[in-house]
Amino acid sequence: MAQDNYQMQGGAPALLYERYLVPMIGILWAIDLVDRAAPRSGERVLDVACGTGIVARTAASRMQTGHVAGLDINPWMLSVARSVSSGSGLPIEWHEGNVLNLPFPAASFDVVLCQLGLQFFPDRPQAMREIFRVLVASGRLALSVFREIERTPMAHAFAEALDRHIKPGASIIKRTEHGFSDANELHRLATDAGFREAIVVPVTKTIRYAETREYVRVQLTASPQVVLLTGMEEQRRNTIIDTIAADINAFLGSTDGGFASPQEANILLAQR
User: Fold this and answer.
1) Which helix (H) or strand (E) covers residue 186, if one does?
2) What is the 3-state secondary structure (H, E, C) of 109-172?
3) 0.90 exceeded by the pTM?
4) CA-CA distance, 235 to 231, in Å (whole number)?
5) Do the domain assignments include residue 176?
6) Residues 131, 112: contact at Cβ < 8 Å?
7) Residue 109, φ and ψ in degrees, nearest 5
8) How many domains does the chain have?
9) With bands split at pLDDT 50, 70 and 90, how would you rate the model's confidence at 87?
10) The domain spanning residue 212 has which CATH number?
11) What's the domain range around 225?
């Protein structure tokens, strides 16, 4: 979850995020990211912009010993993260803090993970320098950002429909999710911060929803886009959801039997 521009307000949306977005989308990217970072038993792992903690939980489940920390600026997301991991036995500590000024000494971690958060950071070079600072010598970074929105058809159709049926510019939050898609710039951020052996790998996952309407409903209730429906009368909300779902179906050539859409991200792998 992001540190500044993509923030959930209140406990209910944060809980819905964990309940609906994480199982359908978040966990696919978390498994991929942790697989690539390959944290080993005994290592210290930091999940930056951890949201409700799916990456931290995935990393901790792979490690028989060691330590995992999750950090996010959003107290509601962290509250859900603590609740979900409570009693699991996973070695995770949760910290409220800002990636631009990480509350850890230098060389505190062997691995830093950051899933789909960098695009929202207000000062990306500073964030990368802080990540570099808290890694040990030869420490590893694995970080993901979405590619251009046009490369994810479901998101592209959704954004276009928001502007068409709610108001011009309504899609700004959704488009910001895909707002840092330049692989060369991502690589340059890492090397400018001091990382070596940095590579950027394009990765595609397939996102599946049994009902397109459910995808739209979740996007508008379990993310910061909930503000688009705030104060809207229930019948109007339902009409908006139905209309946007119909637009997505038409764009994808699907029915409300659901859809399968590619979703693309760039994965940065780097070593200190």
Assistant:
1) helix 183-193
2) EEEEEEECCHHHCCCHHHHHHHHHHHEEEEEEEEEEEECCHHHCHHHHHHHHHHHHHCCCCCCH
3) yes
4) 12
5) yes
6) yes
7) -135, 150
8) 1
9) confident
10) 3.40.50.150
11) 11-271
Burial class (CB in 10 A: 0-12, 13-18, 19+), 49: buried
Residue type for position 218: V
- A 10 A CB-CB count for 42 gives 11
- Does residue 148 lie within any of the structural domains? yes
Q: What is the 3-state secondary structure (H, E, C) of 26-89?
A: HHHHHHHHHHHHCCCCCCEEEEECCCCCHHHHHHHHCCCCCEEEEEECCHHHHHHHHHHHCCCC
Residues 6+ apart with CB under 8 A from 87: none
pLDDT digits (tens, 9 = 90+) for 218-240: 999 998 898 999 889 999 999 99
From the list 262, 3, 272, 2, the residue with the least C-alpha distance to 147 is: 262
Tokens of 160: 């276009």
Task: Report pLDDT digits (tens) over 19-77.
Answer: 999 999 999 999 999 999 999 999 999 999 999 999 999 999 999 899 999 999 999 99
